[in-house]
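Changelog-adjacent note: as of this version, every example in the card shows the full chain rather than a window. The one below runs 351 residues end to end.
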Amino acid sequence: MKKTLAFAASLFLLGACSSDGYTIRGKIAGLDTPYVYLLRFTGQAEVIDSAKVTKEGFVFRGKAETPEMVYLSTDRQQPFARFFLENGRIEVDGSLSAPADIAVLGTASNDTQRAFDERIASLEEEFARAGSERQRDSLRKEYSRAMSDAVEANRDNIFGVTTFMNNAYAFLSPEEVMEQIALFPAEWQQRPQLTALRESTERKLRVSAGHPYIDVTGKDAEGREITLASVVGNPKNKYVLLDFWATWCGPCMAEIPYLKADYDKYAKEGFEIYAVSFDSDRQRWIDTVEQQGLKWIQVSDLTGFRTPAAEAYAVESIPANFLIRCSDGQIVATQLRGEALATKLAELLGN
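Full-length structure tokens:
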């Protein structure tokens, strides 16, 4: 990677940015469009500015009222680089043929992000070479510490906030996320990044273990509406797994062998699955269910993540699941991946 920075420097508190505005100078090999666009994403792409592309590259100038994550694009939609827009001089260098290696440097947050990315990439390379589970476990802990240290040292700037947001649910429970949000300066807690995370976490808390399930409705392949409540209320069922998945989701498909084994073993003991697909291609969904031999309840409104069920359960990534006890409608566990579901079912249903 270009312009390597020492990782240690990335953990120091960042200094204030220039109040004179920003200048972004870019030189990207393979950039043959007449204009390049500066975007922000707030539900959809919003063009902040455009710059003409010349042999020397492109230049943006402006003033950032508050730091934010932005993107560069050639078509107003698909970005090829992302960085922090903050006042100061920002340099963008690289090639469209290798967007992951495009370097964005020049201001405190962007320099810190670049150094941090290089540190994480190094850990990922070590993990790939690790020869034992003990080594991999050690690297996982080091990865977690790197994330935690970076956030702790940068709670008053956009790098720290963004790093926390991107990794909050990977390492923390919803309760811990709320505790961590409270540690950021009051100014940052009121900004959209953390207010949105707080609202999302509050929704997650409402569907965490120990809370009552929320009823949702979906249509099966024949168009018949099936409510989750009808499945939980079925006297034959003792536990219902509400499972969010999609045929296009690799990790979801990797879960299927585990789910099939658990269903085959525990269906007669009172275990049922209510699977909500985030597919939009009806035929692909139906064909996959048939080809994979999925015997449990399948529903989808074919709207992807926009389904009301996703909002009700604060699902932002899949696979995701919630194990519901039918006797009282309580959620007893969440995010049971791989063999974890079998272990939990053995605890609850025996065998």
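Structural remarks: DSSP finds eleven helices and 15 strands in the chain.
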